[in-house]
Structure formats: structure tokens, C-alpha cells
Write a structure and sequence with these properties.
heterodimer, A: four-stranded antiparallel β-sheet, 58% strand, B: mainly beta, five-stranded antiparallel β-sheet, globular
């Protein structure tokens, strides 16, 4: 069966520090991968999606970047965090079926 | 561009029925999803509609009208555990994008 791992679960970072969030999927190959951000009490904002290694589409460029160094690994990064980067970051994967499945998320607080 | 609208909040009574509406305007529509999200947790998949009509799955049903750009999620025999946010999302054809609405926060009262 397929599983998705996302870590860390919570993170507190100072303004101006770098960020690296990692997501890996097991039990499937060539998945579509997604990064979403959710502000408190709001919907999911699509940040990046990827249909293959080194094939990444950006929806909200600005302060964040994403990389997919391996088929089942998706990394969200920032060189310098802003206060507005605080939120709940969710990684998701999609296989042959239409629906996407989410990891448990990372709650990021920038202080 | 894409636009997905759903009510921000709804309240319903335990044991009753509630309908959560979603309207969308997208280019290249390729299916509509409903997800449930409890506070502080990741969303979980509920339903997927790509053709017009009603899809029933236990206490939950989802309806789609592509010509009207309209969907609803129907929850029957409401239970307290159904208190959650319900997210409408659209998949865009020709791409792998899945765009979410802002979600409807449903509160169930005894």
C-alpha cells in the first residue's frame, strides 16, 4: 500500500532563517506531487506541483522554491523566511486515480 | 483563471441533513472533489465527480452539474463527528493542478 511521510510535524523558525520541508511517498512510482499551504481558518493554497523528476510548476513563486531530486521525494525550501510564511504546509500525492492523498502536514511558525 | 466558491460556515443539528454547495469557474475542468478536514489535521478524500449526476457513498452523497458549474455535498444522519471543514476542489484538464476552495466549516449541534 502507498504511504506518504512528511516531516517535521511542527517547526518554529526565526525570521530570516532558511527552511527545508521534506515529503516522501512509498509504494508507488511516478506520482504527481503537491505542496499546499493553509493559513489559519482558510482553504488550501497550491504552491507547487510536479509531474516528474525536475518537472515542477510554481503557482506562488516569491519566497519559496521546490525541488524533486528523486521520483518519490519532494522538498519545499526557502532561503529566508518571512512572518507571512507561517502556516500549515501539506504535501500530497496522486497516482493513477484522480484523487490526491495528503501527508500529516507541518505546522510552521515564523517568529 | 479559476474560482471556487463555497459558504464559509454552516450549522446543522445532529441527526438532520445538510447540503454544502460549491460553485466553480475554471478553464479545462476535469473533475471535482470533496474533502473533509478536522481541525488541525490533514484533509481526507470523500468523493470525486467527473460526470453529471449524483454519487452516493454511505451517509455522504455528491452531485455535479458541469453545465452550471455547480456541485453539492449532502450529509445525512448527521453525527457530532461530522463537525469539520469540507473542502471543494477542482482538477484542471491538461495539467495536474488541483485547486481548492476556501472550505465550509460545519458545526453540528446536539
Amino acid at each position: 500500500s502507498q504511504t506518504i511521510h512528511q516531516w517535521p510535524a511542527t517547526l518554529v523558525q526565526p525570521v530570516g532563517s532558511p527552511l527545508s520541508l521534506e515529503c516522501t511517498v512509498e509504494g508507488t512510482s511516478n506520482p504527481n506531487l503537491y505542496w499546499y499551504r493553509q493559513a489559519a481558518g482558510r482553504g488550501l493554497q497550491l504552491l507547487f506541483y510536479s509531474i516528474g523528476i525536475d518537472q515542477i510548476s510554481s503557482e506562488v513563486p516569491q519566497n519559496l522554491s521546490a525541488s524533486r531530486p528523486q521520483d518519490r521525494q519532494f522538498i519545499l525550501s526557502s532561503k529566508k523566511l518571512l512572518l507571512s510564511d507561517s502556516g500549515f504546509y501539506l504535501c500530497a500525492w496522486r497516482g493513477q486515480g484522480p484523487e490526491a492523498f495528503f501527508g500529516q502536514g507541518t505546522r510552521l511558525t515564523v517568529v | 483563471g479559476q474560482n471556487i466558491d463555497q459558504p464559509t460556515e454552516m450549522t446543522a443539528t445532529e441527526g438532520a441533513i445538510v447540503q454544502i454547495n460549491c460553485t466553480y469557474q475554471t478553464s479545462g475542468f476535469n473533475g471535482l472533489f470533496w474533502y473533509q478536514q478536522h481541525a488541525g489535521e490533514a484533509p481526507t478524500f470523500l468523493s470525486y465527480n467527473v460526470l453529471d449526476g449524483l454519487e452516493e457513498k454511505g451517509r455522504f452523497s455528491s452531485f455535479l452539474s458541469r453545465s452550471k458549474g455547480y456541485s453539492y455535498l449532502l450529509l445525512k444522519e448527521l453525527q457530532m463527528k461530522d463537525s469539520a471543514s469540507y473542502l471543494c476542489a477542482v482538477r484542471v484538464r491538461g495539467a495536474s493542478k488541483i485547486i481548492f476552495g476556501s472550505g465550509t466549516r460545519l458545526s453540528i449541534r446536539p
